[in-house]
Amino acid sequence: MQDFLNLIKDLIRNISLTLQSILLYGESHTRSVKSLEFLYRNFEDFFLKEAELNLGIVGEEIFSGKEIFFELSGQVKDFIRILRDKNIDFLRFKRGLNLEELKGFLKSLGDKEIREDIFKISWPHIELGRFGEEKILKETTLHKVNIEKIISLQKLLCENVKDSLLQTIEGNSLDFSFLIRIVNQLFALLTFRKEFLFLLLNLGREQDYTFIHSLNVTLLSMFQAKILGLPPKDISRIALAGLFHDIGKIAIKRKVLEKKGKITEGEIKELQSHTLWGSKIILSNPNFDRLAFIVSFEHHLGVDLRGYPKVRFLKRQNLASKIVAVSDIYDALRSRRAYKDVMPLERVYTIMNKEKARLLDSYLVDLFFRNVGVWPPGTLVRLDTQEVALVREINPQDLFRPQVEVFYDSKGKRLEKTFIVDLTEKDKNGNFLRRILREMSPWGEGQRFISELLGEKFWQRLINRV
Fold this sequence. Notes:
- It is a single chain.
- By secondary structure, the protein is of the alpha+beta class.
- The protein is built from 18 helices and ten strands.
- It has helices at residues 2-25, 30-47, 77-85, 99-110, 144-169, 176-192, 194-200, 209-228, 232-243, 254-257, 265-272, 274-283, 290-298, 319-334, 345-354, 362-372, 447-454, 456-463; strands at residues 52-58, 61-64, 67-68, 90-94, 126-129, 380-383, 388-393, 403-408, 414-422, 436-439.
- The chain has a five-stranded antiparallel beta sheet. The protein has a five-stranded antiparallel beta sheet with strand order 9-8-7-6-10, with no helix packed on it.
- The longest helix is centred in the middle third of the chain and has 26 residues, at 144-169.
- The model is unreliable at 132-145 (pLDDT under 50).
């Protein structure tokens, strides 16, 4: 298995090197010709074992099948950049590929004049496209290998977030590069399998809520920043700001943070002071990026600047603060806490839309839900037919009617063969065939189904991962 993975990695490196040769010297130069011939022999070796090679781009990483090659990102960054510039999310090379076809493809890939038109060029044994257009991105099984890696990265991050919060309060210097590197790896995995992100948002031990919440806000903020098309450097800065946006809560009494009953006016003011405490803590540590200070101070300010803390000198809220505010409120509303149960996702959607143009930026709220839907990918739902399904893809035209994969029949029996249902489908009379009744909490009625789908051992690792 490892030898085969090494063969794929060699292919990726040699594709990148050959492309660079063609860009530098042209396709007819001796160096380019030799590089192309060597690459073609690599493909011949690969096709002796497999009929096709699938490559995809996620974030700044390249993957094949279930494997994300983090170690290659620096070596083939120019190749990845060219693919991203041309909006190519995946490539497929099929057995039967010949030398001239490969040469023509790489020449077109390196041609700066060919952008969207590259999708109109036909190569018999090479396919390329965007996410959402390809079958390999619509697999119907949850990959436990990826869950294992996600769990370990999640655990590592939470441990380091805890330690970093304490170190920051004591004024010690921090290795932010390590935190960001792990965050980026976790985000790459979760972007590759988006349903894992929204599954993990539902899990975590209550006593670790502050750290779990900070990590959730970070991942959701990176998700938004990526949708906005921000450069990787800015996404990393927003990630760090998201991790420490609530650091000021360490200065708030635990009994106030976790109070179940009605809170007093004094307690409200104490809770609200966490933005000032956080910005002071971050400002006192010279190692922090200035953006973390801004986000800690502003994330409850609101786009109308009428939130808290009260300010007179600001004219507008920073974009990063607006992004973190959307993530913060979304995760807080839908989280299970010691003093509150999980809020239905359709209710979360309604509340956040009511806060548009006041606490939250209208454009960002709309963009967020257009990409995650009311019920995000990975949400376990009960249909009005009493069938149990997982949300697979949202429908941007109707956020309440995504595509789902049905795993259990109306009697709760596991299906031998699952099937995909588009909830926008209607019968001959124009009536919808199915609709979502409600999401099924992994902590409640959905626990049995989730544990069966993931496997009991994996489920136990997930709920005890920190």
